[in-house]
């Protein structure tokens, strides 16, 4: 032991200042951030999937019933929505829903309207 008492005291102060749990805390914080980001992504994807799976005729009906002052137009899309749900033939229901999807795309392209 070649250290003087002052040097030993300096070494003890430096050793006391060392935090042995620093890296463990940093790892836990990092893993918490990763978990929160993952959960946020899962919730975002779930919401997007729920919105995308909605019947396009329902979306068009909701748009016209909320935005349009013309009740006749709202009622006509109510009938289209009803057909898209209650039609016996699955092929015909698909055709009706495709027409509604075409209407949504046309509104977006021509008028810049986003139908939610």
How would you describe what is shown here?
- The chain is an all-alpha fold and 116 residues long.
- Helix content is 81%, strand content 0%.
- The chain contains 5 helices and no strands.
How large is the count of helical segments? 5
Task: List segments where confidence is low: pLDDT < 50 over at least 5 consecutive residues.
Answer: none
* Category by helix and strand content: mainly alpha
Helix content: over 70%
Pattern of helices and strands: HHHHH
The average pLDDT value, as a whole number, equals 87
Shape: rod-shaped
Rg (CA only)? 31 Å
Task: Work out the number of β strands.
Answer: 0
- The proportion of strand residues reads under 5%
Beginning-to-end CA distance, first to last residue: 78 Å
Major sheet characteristics: none
Entry keywords:
mainly alpha; 0% strand; rod-shaped
Brief write-up:
Helices cover 81% and strands 0% of the residues. It has helices spanning 5-17, 22-52, 56-67, 71-86, 90-111.
Question: Topology of this structure?
Answer:
Blueprint: H1 5-17, H2 22-52, H3 56-67, H4 71-86, H5 90-111
Helix pairs in contact: 3-4, 3-5, 4-5
């Amino acid at each position: 032991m070649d250290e003087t008492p002052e040097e030993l005291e300096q070494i003890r102060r430096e050793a006391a200042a060392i935090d042995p749990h620093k890296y463990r805390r940093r790892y836990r914080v990092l893993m918490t951030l990763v978990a929160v980001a993952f959960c946020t992504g899962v919730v975002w994807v779930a919401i997007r999937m729920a919105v995308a799976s909605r019947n396009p005729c329902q979306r068009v009906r909701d748009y016209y019933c909320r935005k349009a002052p013309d009740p006749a137009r709202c009622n006509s899309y109510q009938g289209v929505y009803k057909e898209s749900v209650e039609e016996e033939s699955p092929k015909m229901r698909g055709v009706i829903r495709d027409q509604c999807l075409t209407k949504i795309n046309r509104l977006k392209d021509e008028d810049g309207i986003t139908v939610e």
